[in-house]
Amino acid sequence: MGEKNHLGEFELIERFFAPLSGEGGFGLKDDAALMKVSPGKALVVTQDAIAEPVHFLPGNPPETIARKALRVNLSDLAAKGAVPTAFSLALGLGDAWREDWLEGFARGLAEDCRTYGLTLSGGDTFRTGGGTVISITAWGEIDPAQYRSRLTARPGDRLFVTGTIGEGALGLLAHTGKLPSLSAGTRDILERRYFVPEPPVSFAPLIAEFASASMDISDGFVGDLEKLATASGFDVEVNVPDIPFSREVREALDSGGVSPDRALESALSGGDDYQILFTVPESRVASFLEKAHKHSETGENTLVTPLAVIRKGSGRVRVLGDNGEPLEFAATSWRHF
Description:
Elements (H helix, E strand, L loop, with lengths): L8 H9 L24 E10 L10 H19 L2 E11 L5 H18 L2 E9 L5 E10 L15 E5 L4 H9 L8 H12 L8 H7 L2 E5 L3 H12 L1 E6 L7 H8 L5 H10 L5 E6 L4 H16 L3 E6 L1 E2 L4 E4 L17
Parallel strand pairs: 2-3, 7-11
Antiparallel strand pairs: 1-4, 2-4, 5-8, 5-9, 6-8, 7-10
Helix pairs in contact: 2-3, 2-6, 4-5, 4-9, 5-8, 8-9
């Protein structure tokens, strides 16, 4: 990886991160940042951290680590209907960090700053004494009347999901050698989804306009659906054939290496999807689908899949297999503790 670096904290910030700052960030030379909000808008704030070796592994490319750290936060903002504007970064480096690693990390951040129109407002750098830890706080703007929480779904609303499910979790299995029968092309695609998720950031305005409740999928499809159902007080049944799986996930489910049941459980509960679960009032479904179709025609190509109609309840989620029988999960989502 090159020679071990001897840059001090301020030289490190000046060289790698100050170029990413914008108005109100003051070149990362001040103690705080000044955040301006557009007229009629409110700020939505989210914070997520990723840590080695829990969310990424030693040897993963630093560019992809940076982009994943940022995008897991953008997923939260999109699920609230907010358009991202800026972020701050707390970067804890392990004792073995090197300058070329940090250069790649900053390059990955810069790429996504350009992609999503973001600036770096500030943050902190420190030494962990162990593995690398990255915590990002991201800001987005929204009309405050259109903020979409987990709490406000209503019985009779229709449940939707964006994108496809299972690629991140199965990408981790592929990356760690647990799906040896995959074709090289499929392994590459799944690993890329694990390294760099693709949250539907451009879909946020449709969430703001049409959703009655919404949350992102980070810890696992089934577990996060349970969280949404519990927060809003509904029950729901979802059929596995209705869940959107990519061709690569379907190949992985049939490839061997792990049992089909375990592979399916990983896809549905392993996390790293960074898509959006949301509900839409039945009276607005037709208008929503029409606008979602127009959105896809702009080139954004966000897949939207209807899953079920929710009913009043207490957070019970049943996932029914191909035979109509409910599936049992050892754990419905990733758990840190």
